[in-house]
Write a structure and sequence with these properties.
The protein has helices spanning about 35-45, 55-60, 65-85, 120-130, 170-185, 245-250, 255-270, 280-290, 295-305, 315-330, 340-355, 360-375, 375-390, 395-405, 410-425, 430-445, 445-460, 465-475, 480-495, 500-505, 510-515, 520; strands spanning about 10-15, 20-25, 25-30, 50, 90, 95, 100-105, 155-160, 190-195, 205-215, 220-230, 235-240. By secondary structure, it is an alpha/beta fold. Among the domains are: about 10-145, no CATH class; about 155-270, 3-Layer(aba) Sandwich (Rossmann fold); about 280-355. Helix 9 runs antiparallel to helix 10 (about 315-330), helix 13 runs antiparallel to helix 14 (about 395-405) and helix 17 packs antiparallel against helix 18. It starts with 11 loop residues before the first strand and ends with a helix. InterPro entries: TPR-like_helical_dom_sf (IPR011990), WH-like_DNA-bd_sf (IPR036388).
C-alpha cells in the first residue's frame, strides 16, 4: 500500500472549485491518475454526492463498449478502495462519496481545475461547466445537476427484477432502465428511482416497476409492469423486442422511446388515481398539460392554477409555465396584446432568477428568448445549460433545435427535432413535437416529411391549431386542394373567419412558411 495513503479512519476534504484537491487532514492525497480525479470530481459535483454507474461510464470511457467501460470503472473503484479507503462507496447501480467526505465548492476558479481527460464526453461536460456563469453554478457546480423539488416529498419509484435474483444481463438491464428513467422522470419533476436486487424487505415505494428479461439477445424481450406500491394496483405495462444484441438495443432510439412511454404512462396513471392525494407538483403537471389543449378556456384555467402554485420551492417552475402560457396565447391564438410579450419575458426571467439550475426552467427560458426576444445566442446558451443537467429533456432539445435552425444549421436542427420526438413518445403533448419536426423539415426542404409530421400531430390532437395551419398550407403545396379545404374548414371552426389568405399574411403565426419562402407559393 502507498505509504502516503490515508488510513481507514481518515476524513477527506474534496475541493471541487479551483485547483482540484483531495486532502486528509493536512496531507494532499490527490490521486495521480487523471481518471481517478475525474471520477471523484464528477461524484463530488453531484448535489447528493452520488452518480449512476452508467452515467460515469459514459462520461469517462465514452469511446469504449458498455461492457469494457463497466470493467474499467470496477477496476478504478477497486484501486481507490485500496489507496483511499472510505473515499467512495459503490453498489450495483451508483457510486457515492463516503460518509466521512466533506466538499469545498466555494473557492475561486473553475470547477475541477487541472482535471483533463482525452475523452470527448468528459471534455464536453467539463468545458460546459467551466463556461457557465457563476449564477448557474452555485457551490462549485453542484446546482447544475439538481432538479428543483416542488412542495412535498419526491415520488419514490423502485425497479425490481421480477421473481428471480438478477444475473449479469438482468443487472445490466436494471442499470440501463434506472439511468434512463431517472433522466426521463426529471422532465416531470422530482423522484427517487432505486433498484431492488434481493428478496429482503425494502422501503415502501409509491410505484414499483417489475422488470423481466427473456432471452438476452435477438428474439428476446424486455417487459415492464408498473403497479402502485401500496396496493399493487395496475398502472402500465409494455415490452420491447430485442432485434439486436442487448447492448445495441439499449443504446438505440427504440429503447429511448420505450422508456419515455413507460415514464409517461406510469406517471399519468398514478396521477389519475383517486387514491393518490393531489400534490402541488401533480397540480402543476395537470395545469401544464392544459396549455397544449388548444382551448382558450382551458388555457385560462391553467393560468389560474399556476398563479396559485407560485409559492415555496414550486415558484420557479410555476412562473416558467405561466410564461409559456403567455407564449401560447401569442403563437397559437395570435393574441397581439401590447403587454403580453413583455409579461412572458418578465415571467421567464423571474423564474430563471429563482431557479437558475432547474433544467425545465432553463429550457422554457431558452424557448422564450428564441421566440419572443429573438436572442438565439442566449437561447442556445440556456438550452445547453439545461442539457448538461438532463440530456433527455425534450424542452431543452427543442429550444436548441430552434437556435440551430436560425443560426444556419437546419440539418442539425432537424436531427435534434427528430430525436426530441423520439424522447417525447408517450407524453400527452407529443403532438407539439410533431409540429417541431414539421417546421425543421421545411427548413431542409423536405416538404413531404413536414406534411406527414403535421398530419401525425392531428391524429393525436385533431384540433391543434399549429398543425392545422401547416397541414392546410402543405396540402396546397402538394397539389391537394380538397385536403387543404378540409383542414381549413376544421381550422375555421377554431378561428372564425379563417381563409387561405391568412397563411400569406406576414403577421399570421406561420413564421417558417415565410422564412422558407413557401408562403409566396401559396398564391400561385
Amino acid at each position: 500500500m502507498n505509504s502516503d495513503a490515508p488510513n481507514a479512519s481518515a476524513e477527506f476534504l474534496v475541493t471541487t472549485r479551483g485547483r482540484f484537491r483531495i486532502r486528509a487532514g493536512d496531507r494532499d492525497v490527490t490521486p495521480p491518475g487523471p481518471k481517478a480525479c475525474a471520477l471523484v470530481g464528477a461524484v463530488a459535483l453531484a448535489p447528493d454526492g452520488s452518480r449512476a454507474r452508467r452515467w460515469l461510464q459514459r462520461l469517462i470511457w465514452s469511446d469504449r463498449a458498455p461492457g469494457q467501460a463497466s470493467d474499467s470503472l470496477r477496476r478504478l473503484l477497486a484501486d481507490l478502495r485500496r489507496t483511499h479507503p472510505g473515499l467512495l462507496e459503490a453498489d450495483r447501480s451508483d457510486v457515492r462519496l463516503g460518509p466521512g467526505v466533506a466538499r469545498d465548492g466555494e473557492g475561486p476558479g473553475p470547477p475541477l481545475e487541472g482535471v483533463e481527460l482525452h475523452d470527448a464526453a468528459f471534455t464536453r461536460w467539463i468545458e460546459g461547466l467551466r463556461a457557465a456563469p457563476q449564477a448557474l453554478l452555485p457551490s462549485g457546480g453542484a446546482a447544475l445537476f439538481r432538479t428543483e423539488t416542488p412542495e412535498g416529498a419526491p415520488l419514490r419509484i423502485r425497479l425490481e427484477a421480477g421473481d428471480a435474483l438478477p444475473g449479469g444481463a438482468e443487472l445490466f438491464v436494471l442499470g440501463a432502465l434506472h439511468d434512463a428513467l431517472r433522466q426521463r422522470i426529471a422532465t416531470y419533476g422530482a423522484a427517487e428511482v432505486a433498484i431492488r436486487t434481493d428478496r429482503v424487505s425494502a422501503p415502501t415505494a409509491d410505484i414499483r416497476i417489475l422488470v423481466a428479461l427473456d432471452t438476452p439477445g435477438p428474439g428476446g424481450s424486455i417487459r415492464l409492469r408498473a403497479v402502485a406500491g401500496a396496493d399493487g394496483r395496475f398502472l402500465w405495462s409494455g415490452r420491447i423486442g430485442l432485434d439486436a444484441p442487448l447492448e445495441t438495443v439499449i443504446a438505440g432510439e427504440r429503447f429511448a422511446a420505450f422508456v419515455s412511454a413507460a415514464a409517461s404512462g406510469t406517471l399519468s396513471a398514478h396521477g389519475r388515481s383517486s387514491a393518490v392525494a393531489l400534490t402541488p407538483y401533480m397540480r402543476m403537471q395537470r395545469a401544464a398539460a392544459m396549455l397544449f389543449q388548444g382551448d382558450l378556456p382551458a388555457l385560462a384555467r391553467a393560468e389560474t392554477e399556476l398563479a396559485g402554485l407560485c409559492t415555496g420551492d414550486a415558484t420557479a417552475i410555476a412562473l416558467s409555465w405561466r410564461a409559456f402560457a403567455r407564449l401560447t396565447r401569442i403563437l397559437e391564438f395570435a393574441d397581439a396584446g401590447p403587454d403580453l410579450r413583455a409579461e412572458a419575458l418578465a415571467l421567464g426571467r423571474d423564474a430563471l432568477a429563482r431557479g437558475p439550475a432547474n433544467p425545465l426552467v432553463l429550457a422554457l427560458a431558452a424557448t422564450l428568448e428564441a421566440k419572443l426576444a429573438g436572442d438565439m445566442d442566449r437561447c442556445r446558451f440556456l438550452a445547453l445549460a439545461a442539457i448538461r443537467s438532463n440530456d433527455q429533456n425534450p424542452y431543452a432539445l427543442d429550444a436548441l433545435a430552434e437556435a440551430e435552425a436560425v443560426r444556419g444549421a437546419p440539418g442539425a436542427a432537424h436531427e435534434t427535432a427528430r430525436r426530441v420526438r423520439v424522447l417525447a413518445t408517450g407524453m400527452p403533448n407529443a403532438f407539439y413535437w410533431d409540429v417541431q419536426v414539421c417546421l425543421t423539415a421545411l427548413r431542409v426542404g423536405e416538404t413531404a416529411r413536414a406534411a406527414r409530421a403535421a398530419r401525425t400531430a392531428l391524429v393525436s390532437h385533431p384540433g391543434y391549431r399549429p398543425a392545422l395551419r401547416y397541414a392546410t398550407a402543405l396540402s396546397l403545396l402538394e397539389g391537394a386542394p380538397e385536403a387543404a379545404a378540409r383542414y381549413a374548414a376544421r381550422l375555421a371552426l377554431r378561428e372564425p373567419g379563417f381563409t387561405i389568405d391568412h397563411l400569406r399574411a406576414p403577421g399570421y403565426p406561420v413564421h417558417t412558411l415565410h422564412a422558407t419562402g413557401l408562403a409566396e407559393r401559396l398564391g400561385r
